[in-house]
Amino acid sequence: MTDAPSMTDDTAAPRSHSLAVITFWLASGAFAIGVSEFAAMSLLPYFAAEFGVTSSVAGHAISAYALGVVVGAPVIAVFASRFPRKYVLLVLMAVFALGNLLTAIAPSMWLMNTARFMSGLPHGAYLGIAMLFAADIAGKGKRAKAVSQVLLGIAIATVIGVPA
To answer: Which of 17, 54, 104, 113 could form a disulfide with 64 if both were Cys (CB 3.0 to 4.6 A apart)?
Structure first.
């Protein structure tokens, strides 16, 4: 029985230290995504005060991000399948970073929600593609470990990356 061919042109298994570096950076991206998703919950009172809205209206920032995740994950995954995974991951993180920058400088609640939606778009696609990329580069026998290392980023974000 043979494995299905990879959908990426980055299939050469790197040396173990290179694999560790790559999975560290993939996990770092997952950590950043996790912090962006979860930290907003503790910032809702500040959003409400800054924009002069109620707490429930400020909560739309959470919903906007979640809607971005729901829309972005399947759409981006389908369109991104034509391109090398490492480049897709870089573009996804650039969109994520831009969305967070726009969130930070948004002059209104509406613009902040729009930026939160934008920063949510790459969330699901990044995690899925990062796990596939890690599995591909790890090679047989190391795939599960590489994927778990990527997911460790989001797990750590839920524990230490979110303000109390």
So the answer is: 113
pTM: 0.85
Domain containing residue 121: CATH number: 1.20.1250.20
Q: How far is CA 108 from the centre of its chain?
A: 24
The answer to whether position 1 is within a domain reads no
pLDDT, tens only, 138-155:
988 999 999 999 999 999
- In degrees, rounded to 5, the angle at the alpha carbon of residue 75 between the alpha carbons of residues 72 and 77 is 95
d(CA 157, CA 36): 9
Comparing C-alpha atoms, which of 4, 3, 8 is closest to residue 82? 8
Structure tokens that stand for 2 in this block: 């043979």
10 in a structural domain: no
Q: What is the pLDDT of residues 15-45, one digit of tens each?
A: 667 999 999 999 999 999 999 999 888 899 9
Strand (E) positions, the chain?
A: none
Of the candidates 2, 38, 13, the one whose C-alpha atom is nearest the C-alpha of residue 120 is 38
